[in-house]
């Protein structure tokens, strides 16, 4: 598609909405509708400036916000490009990262950052168990088709899965291992989600800039009896690659 056609965007100078916001939303609509496709070059600051007779700062802000929201990415010296669509994560089913990625036709992987046996009073309190109980702490960088997606730190009650720390979770599902190796069937989970920004440690691992929007998730997983806690997990997902989905019904 010619650049001129892509620059026919609905901008209303009489609107109370700022020009940069209108421009951002118009470009976002083109991306979501498929007019601008993944990895396609988007109009540059100069092209937007000339097409709409706006300041370079206004054009830059629109593109910066699109980047922060995960709609575009920048390549030094080449410009801005449309990002891959965000992964749509449902909230109704208890599934593993590996299962989620396989369902989307993506190859799940992990880089194991840390695995050890620990005692953690905070985790024990969250699970409502004895403060001296041992946990297998497993920290992994989760990958999809080789791209970092999330930083995940799990605490498993070692009394239910002794020796779990000896397994290599680089290319295997934790939940499948719990079921197949230890006979543990998971039943339900309680999960909370909050917004946060990436700190320097998270940003380096997830290959984003510090301050990038993130989804912070905390989950307690129970066995199939519905009341025995087995896992406490904290995860940080890239906000530019994930969006959450849940179906709501009126009472």
Give a verbal description of the structure.
The protein has 251 residues and is of the alpha+beta class. The protein has two domains: 80 residues, Arc Repressor Mutant, subunit A (Orthogonal Bundle); 159 residues, Chorismate lyase, CATH 3.40.1410.10. Helix content is 28%, strand content 32%. It has eight helices and ten strands. The strands form three sheets. Strands 4-5-6-9-8-7 form a six-stranded antiparallel sheet. Strand 8 and strand 9 form a beta hairpin. Helix 2 crosses helix 4 and helix 3 crosses helix 4. The radius of gyration is 22 Å and the shape is elongated. 25% of the residues are buried.
Mean pLDDT: 85
Number of domains: 2
> Regions with pLDDT < 50 over 5+ consecutive residues?
1-5
Q: Which architecture of the largest domain per CATH?
A: 3-Layer(aba) Sandwich
Note the total helix count: 8
CATH homologous superfamily caption of the largest domain? Chorismate lyase-like
Q: List how many beta strands DSSP finds.
A: 10
Global morphology = elongated
Largest sheet: 6 strands, antiparallel
Sheet-strand content, in percent, reads 25-35%
Name the assembly state: single chain
State the separation between the terminal residues, measured CA to CA: 47 Å
CATH class of the largest domain: Alpha Beta
CATH topology of the largest domain: Chorismate lyase
């Amino acid at each position: 598609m010619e650049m001129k056609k892509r620059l026919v965007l609905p901008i209303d100078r009489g609107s109370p909405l700022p020009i940069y916001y209108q421009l951002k939303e118009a470009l976002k609509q083109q991306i979501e509708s498929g007019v601008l496709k993944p990895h396609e070059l988007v109009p540059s600051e100069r092209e937007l400036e000339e097409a709409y007779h706006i300041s370079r700062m206004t054009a830059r802000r629109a593109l910066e916000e699109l980047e922060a929201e995960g709609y575009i990415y920048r390549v030094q010296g080449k410009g801005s490009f449309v990002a891959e669509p965000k992964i749509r994560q449902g909230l109704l089913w208890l599934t593993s990262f590996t299962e989620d990625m396989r369902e989307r036709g993506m190859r799940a992987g992990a880089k194991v950052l840390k695995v050890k046996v620990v005692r953690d009073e905070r985790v024990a309190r969250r699970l409502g168990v004895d403060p001296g109980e041992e946990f297998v702490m497993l920290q992994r960088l989760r990958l999809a088709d080789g791209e970092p997606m999330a930083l995940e730190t799990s605490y498993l009650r070692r009394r239910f899965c002794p020796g779990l720390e000896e397994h290599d979770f680089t290319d295997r599902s934790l939940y499948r291992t719990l079921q197949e190796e230890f006979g543990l069937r998971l039943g339900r989970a309680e999960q909370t989600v909050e917004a946060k920004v990436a700190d320097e440690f998270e940003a380096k691992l997830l290959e984003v800039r510090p301050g990038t929007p993130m989804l912070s998730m905390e989950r307690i997983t129970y066995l199939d009896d519905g009341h025995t806690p087995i896992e406490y997990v904290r995860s940080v997902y890239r906000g530019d690659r994930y969006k959450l989905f849940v179906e709501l019904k009126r009472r």
